[in-house]
Amino acid sequence: MIHRVIGETAITIEHDPKIPTLSFPLGESVKHRVVSDIDVKMGVGNLCVDVPHGKPVLKRGEITATGDRKRIIWTHPAIGSFIESLPMIGSVRIMMPISDWLRTPDILHQVIMPGLMFPLVERRIIAIHASAVIYNGKGILFAGPSGSGKTTLALRMVDKGAIFVAEDMIFLTIDDKVGFVAWGLGDTPRADKAAWNRFSKWNPGKKDWAGKMSISIDNIRHAKKTVVSKLFWLGKSRDGQAHHLLSLLSASFHSINLEQTSKILAKFIEDVGFTKVSHPDEAFSLALKKTP
Question: What are the residue ranges spanned by the domains of the chain?
């Protein structure tokens, strides 16, 4: 059984011993049992449930989520229904035949994170597409659409002495004392071959299920979380207002709890502010500058 805490939210993961070795680095480890806000049970077999009617509320690769705040069912075209999430209660049930567990290369990203996304939003924890580093003691986020350079920017900053937090997705929590805190998934930096070609001192391994290569997390300085001090938005134009970024920043924007997600993101942008840049080089240059 795995116990983790993200901000003030406790997560317990219980899994069948037949399932391959499970790694869940997100959050802080808790050695003793705590009262869980979210319970995840992972088993071997088929998830025999009815799929709610209506259009999918979220898609991640080949899998789709259908339902509402009370009940979400995730389905895969080859597996069928395999995740039942009760966001408001905080219960997640994941079931697949052992053959599907064994051929799932990344259980954390492909299975657990989709199941947790909606329950986390209900507890004011949202996912956004951004990379994150700590430089000169300041937490810096680089946000933008896919292919905008978030991962490469994080690696360039690490190459200059920054501490790595995340390269693609982070989770935001609110701390009443320090403000917004960005949590990385706690896993290794992953990037395509073109990004790694910029850095001769790192030797990434083979491509994973998403076509990306990675290095061991132990090869770089890293941290699980950081208080957010700066946010850079990578975009081609400089026009537009902060509220236009809401749909672009959030990985959970199509969440069933859209009002909750939008309020958190609006407060995040209001409190932290953002600098819009037209090119990753501009963001890199600004991020290296010392500021109070």
Answer: 2-122, 126-288
Residue pLDDT, tens place only, 11-25? 999 999 998 877 777
Whole-number Å distance between alpha carbons of 39 and 18: 19
240: tokens are: 């537009």
Torsion of CA 48, 49, 54, 60, to 10 degrees: -60
Q: Give the whole-angstrom CA distance, residue 53 versus residue 55.
A: 7
- DSSP letter at 222? B
CB 256 within 8 A of CB 122: no
Residues 34/23, Cβ–Cβ less than 8 Å:
no
What is the full DSSP assignment across 179-194? EEEEE--SS--EE-HH
Long-range contacts of 47-55 (CB under 8 A, 24+ apart): 47/80, 47/81, 47/82, 47/83, 47/84, 47/93, 47/94, 47/95, 47/96, 48/81, 49/73, 49/81, 49/84, 51/75, 51/81
What would you report as the CA-atom Rg of the chain, rounded to the nearest whole angstrom? 19
112-133 tens-digit pLDDT = 988 998 999 888 888 888 899 9
Cα angle for residues 122, 76, 97 (degrees, 5° grid): 100
> What does CATH list as the number for 126-288?
3.40.50
First vs last C-alpha separation in the chain: 43
Spatial separation of the C-alpha atoms in residues 106 and 101, rounded to whole Å:
10
Q: What is the pTM of this model?
A: 0.85
